[in-house]
Amino acid sequence: MTHIGIDISKATFVAAYPQKNGYRTLTFPNTPHGCLKFIRTLESGQHHCVMEATGNYGFLLLYLLHKADITVSMENPKKIKNFARTMMSVTKTDEADARLIALYGERMQPLPFRMPADSIMMLRQKRAVLRMMKKQRNAGSNLMQSMQVLPKQDPMARSSLEKVISALDRQIRRMEEDLAQTTQQEFDRQMALLTSIKGIGTAIASALIIATGGFTYFDNAKQVSRYLGLCPTIQQSGTSVHVRGNINRNGDEQLRAEMYIASWSASRHNAACKECYNRLRQRGKPKQLALIAVANKLIRQAFSVVKKGTPYQDGFVSDKPSTILTT
Length: 327
Description:
This protein has helices at about 30-40, 60-65, 75-85, 95-110, 120-150, 155-185, 190-195, 200-210, 220-230, 255-270, 270-280, 285-310; strands at about 1-10, 10-20, 20-30, 45-50, 70-75, 230-235, 240-245. The chain has about 325 residues and is α/β, with parallel strands linked by helices. The chain folds into three domains: about 1-110, Nucleotidyltransferase, domain 5, CATH 3.30.420.40; about 120-185; about 205-310, no CATH class. A hairpin with a 3-residue loop joins strand 6 (about 230-235) and strand 7 (about 240-245).
């Protein structure tokens, strides 16, 4: 399998082809015609394309490669950056990056990308636009509050800002309703299972479905927690350094924050989460750490109910006899 490194930009992308004495690079326009021209230089089963996750700019090529049955991997840019450090790379150009990505693919053998379903792609777009509108709404609200302390306010500026905020409120409500309705239609069973958990509402349920591709991208709950950046880091070296650090803060920042907020309610009303929270607090753990543990437990509960296909039973205790070890 020959690994082809691809460096994506807005207007073009550079592909690096391995040769006997290095790499040959070619530049293609980042358009449907340019992507198809590049694909014609490849053979299914012979080439494995590797690219960085660059948001929407690389998704057209990713989609067309998948349709052409060309193996493709999409890697976290942090992995490529750290790999460049290990190779002591000092050159930063599109051609050099493409060659580096090709070398990364050859050395690291990344897994093929799992293409999301069309419904997931549509839901991701809705969620991205909704997130953008909420940010704009918060910015407008903050500006409005800062203007209120001024000794004199311009009537036209205030009126325009109020209209913008009002329009954003209407669009946010419409998008939230459409997002919930679309998720309910496409993933009605998963939505019912997830919302059976105390602490998880429709908004978080739909966000979890979108982030996990309908719970098809991950094999266990721990992988989901790591993807969302809720897993603690560990620093250990010799006998002098042994620190269980903060969460890694990778992945979807908004969903991580929503899971943390959900832990507030779950720590009071979800029996298993409440027991986890109280146990950690009684052991002297900080409140924030206990809530993060609750957020992780919510993820484990969500993964479990979806994979088992049974609604969550709050306070359920298994009647399976425990194993007693005797010596």
